[in-house]
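RECORD TYPE: inverse folding
INPUT: structure tokens
STRUCTURE:
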């Protein structure tokens, strides 16, 4: 199922894309029971929103061996996690604002996990059943500030630094998906989530042993190698097999 959150006029809906380009409006909640209303909108006639409005975004650093190597960082024994604020979220098609405070802003293509239920302390065997689905994400990072500050909060938290979308997809194997970034049409990151150091079920279980996860919360699963800088005017496209493409321009 491909689930979209969108605006039609000034009204917000969730819709399911059963046939290409058509969004079937649902009533109820995607986090609980829902059914189709029979109303359908064309994708080009709506404004796509981020698939979720998370209460928090927890990101995993260094979850691909080659990315740890390119940053000259040791492989973690446990997931290294940090927060991005919900105010950083933007949707597919929205603009990433290059902040004045930074001289070096990087893209980071990541698989996003959207949590379905309120959970605390779940086992890795039970973790997957509490996931609503998966989306493309871009963990936009002010790399100069990440290196300068001991905490990563500033580098990861600027407004617009968390593009999510274009939709939320379930029934895919999250640990075996091709993932890529194109910068102005040129491939700059290309890998597979099969290269994860920590798999999705382990990550969800691990974080749930620390904090309660709420419906809609988002976990970013780390980026593969090939990160690099952007400049104003660039167009970034994060593509994940089975989900689609998350495209954002830097301004
Ligand atoms: Mg990252």
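DESIGNED SEQUENCE:
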């Amino acid at each position: 199922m491909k689930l979209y959150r969108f605006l039609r006029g000034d009204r917000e809906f969730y819709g399911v894309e059963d046939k290409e380009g058509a969004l079937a409006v649902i009533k109820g909640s995607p986090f609980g029971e829902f059914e189709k209303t029979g109303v359908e909108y064309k994708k080009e006639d709506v404004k796509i929103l981020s698939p979720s409005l998370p209460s928090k975004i927890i990101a995993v650093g260094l979850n691909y061996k080659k990315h740890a190597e390119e940053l000259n960082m040791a492989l973690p024994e446990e997931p290294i996690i940090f927060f991005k604020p919900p105010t950083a979220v933007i949707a597919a098609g929205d603009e990433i604002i290059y902040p004045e405070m930074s001289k070096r802003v990087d893209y980071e293509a990541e698989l996003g996990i959207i949590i379905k239920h309120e959970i605390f302390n779940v086992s890795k065997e039970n973790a997957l059943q509490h996931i609503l689905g998966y989306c493309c994400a871009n963990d936009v990072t002010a790399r100069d500030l990440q290196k300068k500050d001991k905490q990563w909060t500033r580098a990861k938290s600027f407004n617009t630094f968390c593009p999510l979308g274009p939709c939320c997809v379930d029934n895919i194997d999250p640990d075996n998906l091709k993932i890529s970034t194109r910068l102005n049409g040129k491939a700059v990151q290309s890998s597979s989530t099969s290269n994860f150091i920590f798999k999705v079920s382990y990550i969800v279980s691990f974080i749930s042993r620390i904090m309660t996860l709420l419906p809609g919360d988002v976990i970013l699963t780390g980026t593969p190698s090939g990160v690099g800088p952007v400049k104003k005017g660039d167009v970034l496209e994060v593509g994940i097999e089975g989900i689609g493409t998350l495209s954002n321009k830097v301004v």
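NOTES: The chain has two domains: 2-48, 57-250.
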